[in-house]
């Protein structure tokens, strides 16, 4: 199988490693890729969000499968353009990707499908914003309606901060606060059949103890020792299958990766958000534990044959990833600094570039690298991931020191 992978972040480096680990994958191309992905794939300089350019590249390289990593190409209709050329693609159509592209659309689908989620209002003016904030009370949850790279959500007790975020975004979804531990569940689907991956947890806030602003994600671990037995089956029955059925009913079936972000509240699991692609950095830990060949799995979803796919196999043990972020991230990340100590198995490239003059590795994004490791249990995996992070030198960089700590210490409780 010849595979073309779109994107150039940590998620795509993890996907690339998974794909080349599948004996059925003969060649991997990536556009644009990154210096980490360059170690396992042939890079092509094509804008991944340009539908015509990607479709042409897929034909040129003779791709049997195109895997779309980030959300922007999906919302731009890249999957539609590639499919129109007769090339199987892992990733939903632009219409179906609206589950991620518009929080209002996602709420409409959830309501129609009877999916448990936070009550919410879409607001475009100060008056309706004020009314919604007062109805739900603190903590206030204000979400940019469109794509915001994981940073469009403000959760605050400060009414002025909530009002300002709403004003800056223009169109927002204001919703009730969901209290309880969060779970990321990835589901591979061809629109009808659905195969859940291992639940994971990520860390959205920049600082230890979940302090500071939201980020794209500062670390993750899997599996979740504290997750109630039966959680995945419950989410498949109450969330995933009703949502897939509603998308089929609308004539826009969702095929690809349905990311279900959940809060486990006292009233049961509630959907915080849907995404239309793998989450970053949870992908790094989930794929580190997946034993089933990745290319075959994604190809089955892309060709509508997932019902015939064998059950997924998982490695024993646990995986942890810790993000090394650039100075100033998430507000104003500094880029262009030299990185050393990154050349180790398990170091995933998220925002890096090579200096043309001498090939030195440079920081090129807010989230720069992820130290990713597996181990017989969470403690061993965590210690190995931090050992990788300690070996990385990047001036001004920062990382959280408490990834997986509450799970290891048994401090996460699911409300009854
Ligand atoms: P989202 O981009 O929708 O995943 O939101 C980013 C983060 O904001 C989530 O991971 C949660 O930590 C938090 N969040 C979003 N919506 C809610 C909610 N209704 N209640 C509590 N926290 C939320």
> Which secondary-structure class do the elements indicate?
alpha+beta
Ligands, ions, cofactors: adenosine monophosphate
Q: Could you give the count of β-strands?
A: 24
Using only C-alpha atoms, the radius of gyration works out to 20 Å
- What is the CA-CA span between the terminal residues? 47 Å
Q: What portion of the residues fall into strands of 2 or more residues?
A: 25-35%
Account of the 3D structure:
The protein is an alpha+beta fold and 416 residues long. 31% of the residues lie in helices and 26% in strands. The chain is built from 13 helices and 24 strands. A 5-stranded parallel sheet has the order 3-2-1-4-5, with helices on both faces. β1, α1 (10-20) and β2 (27-32) form a beta-alpha-beta unit. α6 crosses α9 (231-249). The model has no long low-confidence stretch (mean pLDDT 97). Adenosine monophosphate binds at residues 118, 141, 143, 150, 153, 155, 175, 177-178, 182, 204, 214, 261, 272-273.
């Amino acid at each position: 199988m010849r595979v073309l992978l779109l994107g150039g972040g940590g998620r795509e480096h993890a996907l690339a490693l998974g794909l080349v680990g599948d004996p059925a994958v003969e060649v991997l191309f990536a556009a644009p890729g990154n210096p980490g992905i360059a170690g396992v794939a042939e890079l092509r300089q094509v804008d991944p969000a340009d539908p015509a350019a990607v479709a042409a590249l897929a034909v040129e390289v003779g791709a049997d499968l195109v895997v779309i990593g980030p959300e922007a190409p999906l919302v731009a209709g890249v999957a539609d353009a590639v499919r129109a050329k007769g090339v199987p693609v892992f990733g939903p159509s632009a219409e179906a990707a609206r589950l991620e592209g518009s929080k209002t659309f996602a709420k409409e689908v959830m309501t129609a499908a009877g999916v448990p989620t936070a009550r919410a209002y879409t607001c475009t003016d100060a008056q309706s914003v004020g009314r919604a904030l007062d109805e739900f009370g603190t903590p206030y949850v204000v979400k940019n309606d469109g794509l915001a790279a994981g940073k469009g959500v403000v959760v605050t007790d400060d009414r002025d901060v909530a009002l300002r975020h709403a004003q800056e975004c223009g169109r927002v979804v204001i919703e009730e606060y969901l209290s309880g531990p969060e779970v990321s569940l990835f589901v591979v689907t061809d629109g009808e059949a659905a195969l859940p991956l291992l639940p994971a947890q990520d860390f959205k806030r920049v600082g230890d103890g979940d302090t500071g602003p939201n980020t794209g994600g500062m670390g993750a671990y899997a599996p979740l020792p504290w997750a109630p037995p039966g959680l995945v089956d419950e989410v498949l029955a109450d969330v995933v299958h009703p949502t897939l059925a509603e998308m089929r009913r609308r004539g826009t079936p969702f095929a690809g990766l349905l990311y279900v972000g959940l809060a486990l509240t006292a009233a049961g699991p509630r959907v915080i958000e849907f995404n239309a692609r793998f989450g970053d950095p949870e992908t790094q830990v989930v794929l580190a534990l997946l034993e089933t060949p990745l290319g075959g799995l994604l190809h089955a979803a892309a060709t509508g044959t997932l019902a015939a796919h064998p059950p997924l196999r998982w490695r024993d043990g646990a995986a942890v990833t810790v993000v090394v972020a650039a100075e100033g991230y998430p507000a104003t990340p500094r880029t262009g600094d030299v990185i050393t100590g990154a050349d180790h198995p398990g170091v995933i490239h998220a925002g890096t570039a090579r200096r043309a003059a001498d090939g030195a590795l440079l920081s090129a994004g807010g989230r720069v690298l992820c130290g990713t490791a597996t181990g017989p249990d969470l403690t061993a995996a965590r210690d190995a991931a931090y050992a990788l992070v300690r070996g990385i030198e990047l001036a001004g960089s920062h990382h959280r020191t408490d990834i997986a700590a509450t799970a290891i210490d048994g401090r996460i409780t699911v409300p009854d």
